[in-house]
Amino acid sequence: MNDTLLGLLEGNADHAARFDDRFDDVQDAQHPEAVTVCCSDSRVLQDAIFGNDDPGHLFTCGNIGNRVVQRTDAGEVVSGDVLYPLAHTGTETAVVVGHTGCGAVTATYDELTDGLSEPPGIEHCIGLLKPHLEGGVESLPADVDREGAINRLVEYNVDRQVEFLVESDDVDDDVDVVGVVYDFQDVYGGQRGEVHVVNVGGETSVETLQAEYPDIADRVHRLWEY
């Protein structure tokens, strides 16, 4: 048997032993307090970054580039996996979680600047990000290095995903939409693993957000305000 799989099963056995009674209240229904849309990256532990170990608390979605956009014959719509908890489980908070050094943002940046060759499945995902990042690439400071460009585009991508949710007719106006960036690369100068708030409901001004939300003022940071 594959050693990796054996390790996973051993880990699951420990999980089952610890979590056995934590499903009592959620076996038949779920009413998560928030839906989080994270990037599919092995370094981004979706529940752990928020200290969550309670089944039913967070509805976690993951894809490369933390996208909320899905392409259909009718055009771009809010992805069904993100929309489901907002439409059917009473969830009233959506959090878009980007992260420093994002590979999907990097690939999209390379595609927009130099061209890129990837398998069709990856090309499809990059194709969903491209139209939303073009404006960010055009707005980058002329003197920014590659790493700085990528991490600024991480914020820009979070902004565009938040904007898409806020402007969608399918998302109720009462839903709070927040954009954050998870930093494990010492980009924002805080502690590794901290989440930095960059967007609340479409507002991206650090000064405005800190004034409006003084209780989290020390967690509001941005690399750029374009």
TrEMBL record:
Keywords: Lyase, Metal-binding, Zinc. It catalyses: hydrogencarbonate + H(+) = CO2 + H2O. Signal peptide: none annotated. SMART domains: Pro_CA. Zn(2+) binds at C39, H99, C102. Transmembrane segments: none annotated. Its cofactor is Zn(2+). InterPro entries: Carbonic_anhydrase, Carbonic_anhydrase_sf. This is carbonic anhydrase. It comes from Haloarcula pellucida.
